[in-house]
């Protein structure tokens, strides 16, 4: 399946908020937001700058795992699609919380924005897989393990906390001319099972390696 362009992707999902903050009665954090590019409430890094030496893009291969050493994340990755109301699905609220890759976005390492969601909390189960996402800083490493045995390594270029009503759809879904990654969860003040904001991490591809080491004779 050929991934859709960023602009087409934004249209398909109808500017859905990629929330990732489910709890009892919260519909797992799904919802909608305006398509405007509202200002960020908080940014932990400087605006993204292009790399001096772009890395060659990878062929399509679905992600099966995600590692973020700086915040102790090492998680399998499940596939996500669209809910019946046109919003992006989020991982189920369970005690073995996983990250989820939105299957209508490019796979990690392909040209374009690959989108991965995770919960910050999972109701009565406690903390979610992306509970520390907002602590990332520019330069922190994110590794996506792919089904074909390749590992795509990314570096964080920006971290934003934005109001859900000001979700920056174009920045998240919009076309880019290099492989990038978006990690999204909830953040900000909490009211019951809902959070006011989204935390969005922007990262760029910096290296690719074989995740399966050859046997040594």
From TrEMBL:
Biased composition (Gly residues): 26-38
Tagged with keyword Transmembrane: no
Gene3D superfamilies listed in its UniProt record: Sortase
Region ranges (Disordered): 26-59
Membrane-traversing stretches: none
Pfam families in the record: Sortase
Swiss-Prot/TrEMBL keywords: Hydrolase, Lipoprotein
GO function terms (MF aspect): hydrolase activity
Superkingdom as given in the UniProt entry: Bacteria
UniProt keyword Lipoprotein, yes or no: yes
SUPFAM superfamilies: Sortase
NCBIfam families: class_F_sortase
Name recorded for this polypeptide: Lipoprotein
